[in-house]
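Hypothesis: this fold can be encoded by more than one sequence.
Test: take the structure tokens below, design a sequence, compare later.
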């Protein structure tokens, strides 16, 4: 291994011993960059990798709120402003009980490369809270969002940091967060959050963007393999925003998603999640207070596999769309044994590094999260452009730009992999393509 890469990985491990998800991502990204680092000794002289793995700023704060019975609760809020070399920090807010510093630092680090890949001028950040929205009333969600934004507003703004949604943060939460920002700051500030509802600055296609983007990227890979999406079966995990958008586009392109999942199991629907009724039901479930994937099995009379993951189901394509580390070696072996040829990451870091390596070694084409799911943040950046210019593009215009961006992400990743002697390795190619632009900007902006 390149000595500089190895040293920075070891130092990062020593500095962050209790952050396994963050270390997993740093190791994956930096080892992908070895061929580049070999050719650029100036990066070591400028301590570029040491700076790259250290967030520019990390904010942690108390969020106190009351439930409907008037009982007080305290959660922890975070914003990780990881790297602003390419533009204002941009990345989602996640509300989920599993949220901690390690998870948000891995998401923020990933976001830096993802945002670079989009070709748009945005830096990388991530934030959120260990608040659990499941089972909360609308009024409780509103009070939590208001308490969260009362502190967060000090740290964000249209030229510094523009947050968006993620797990547990959809249009409703973005609305409450933006309302509180506006109330405290008395300023519109170009909309400051993205993923807003359409009536006040939201972009058409933003709800669908991540899922659609996954399929636009997949189309490029299928074209490279002289293959077609038509008639293919897809195993998906999750039933939230990303899974919904992906299932919708799969159906439109003539394939069918046969699984979706939640925290308590997965559903197998051999007829496919292809009708408008089924696709709309995913939205209904996600919006319901006690959402649970079993609701889908009950409504449409299909199999529910309690506390199991969908990766044992035979499918041509696997697309995890739920959360981190849902594909370990055990699941990777099932995916390979099923003869699955394509694996695209809708969720962030859904697989362990070992699982990815195993799938690639066994001929599965892997599309990594930072490339595959970049459509969401890309359309968020397009929302920023529309807000600052006070205009709204049609859904056809946004969709065409999204398609073009996903094609350029695929092509640029493939080109970088080939240039550095790595064949059609889209995982390493995406890391290299994302890195080169950030590295160039950091080198030209001097030491800080
Ligand atoms: P949603 O909140 O809409 O949906 C999350 C889904 O994941 C739900 O189906 C949920 O099921 C499931 N899930 C959450 N935690 C767990 C868990 N611990 N175990 C099993 N299932 C779980 O989120 P999104 O669809 O927005 O995000 C999904 C993934 O995609 C995340 O990794 C996110 O970072 C990534 N992503 C999202 C983007 C976006 O635009 N929304 C952009 C880029 C990436 P249940 O309710 O049963 O827990």
């Amino acid at each position: 291994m390149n000595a500089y890469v190895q040293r920075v990985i070891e130092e990062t491990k020593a500095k962050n011993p209790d952050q396994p998800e963050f270390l997993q991502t740093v190791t994956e990204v930096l080892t992908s960059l070895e061929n580049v680092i070999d050719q650029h000794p100036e990066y070591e002289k400028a301590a570029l990798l040491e700076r790259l793995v250290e967030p520019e700023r990390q904010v942690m704060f108390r969020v106190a709120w009351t439930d409907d019975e008037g009982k007080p609760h305290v959660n922890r809020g975070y914003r990780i402003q990881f790297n602003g070399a390419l533009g204002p920090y941009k990345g989602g807010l996640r509300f989920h009980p599993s949220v901690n510093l390690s998870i948000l630092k891995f998401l923020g680090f990933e976001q830096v490369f993802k945002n670079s890949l989009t070709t748009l001028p945005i830096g990388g950040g991530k934030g959120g809270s260990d608040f659990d929205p499941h089972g909360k009333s609308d009024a409780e969600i509103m009070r939590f969002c208001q308490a969260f934004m009362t502190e967060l507003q000090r740290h964000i703004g249209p030229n510094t940091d523009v947050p968006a949604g993620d797990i547990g943060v959809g249009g409703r939460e973005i609305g409450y967060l933006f309302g509180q920002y506006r109330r405290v700051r008395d300023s519109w500030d170009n909309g400051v959050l993205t993923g807003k509802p359409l009536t006040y600055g939201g972009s058409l296609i933003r709800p669908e963007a991540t899922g659609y983007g996954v399929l636009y990227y997949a189309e490029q890979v299928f074209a490279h393999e002289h293959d077609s999406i038509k008639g293919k079966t897809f195993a998906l995990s999750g039933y939230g925003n990303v899974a919904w958008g992906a299932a919708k586009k799969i159906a439109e392109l003539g394939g069918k998603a046969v699984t979706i999942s939640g925290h308590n199991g997965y559903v197998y629907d051999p007829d496919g999640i292809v009708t408008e009724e089924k696709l709309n039901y995913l939205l209904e479930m996600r919006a319901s207070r006690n959402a649970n994937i079993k609701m889908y099995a009950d409504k449409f009379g299909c199999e529910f596999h309690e506390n199991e993951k969908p990766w044992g189901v035979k499918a041509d394509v696997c697309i995890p769309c739920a959360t981190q580390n849902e594909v370990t070696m055990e699941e990777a072996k099932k995916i390979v044994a099923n003869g699955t040829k394509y694996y695209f990451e809708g969720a962030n870091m859904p697989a362990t590094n070992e699982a990815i390596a195993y799938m690639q070694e066994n001929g599965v084409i892997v599309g990594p999260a930072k490339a595959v799911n970049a459509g969401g943040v890309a359309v968020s950046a397009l929302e920023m452009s529309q807000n600052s210019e006070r205009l709204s593009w049609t859904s056809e215009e946004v969709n065409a730009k999204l398609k073009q961006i996903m094609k350029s992400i695929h092509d640029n990743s493939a080109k970088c992999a080939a240039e550095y002697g790595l064949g059609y390795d889209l995982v390493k190619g995406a890391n290299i393509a994302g890195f080169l632009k950030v590295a160039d900007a950091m080198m030209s902006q001097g030491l800080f």
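Residues 96, 98, 165-168, 210, 238-242, 262-263, 286, 291, 293, 321-323, 346-348, 373, 376 surround NDP (CB under 6 Å). The CA atoms of residues 66 and 72 lie 4 Å apart.
Hypothesis status: open.
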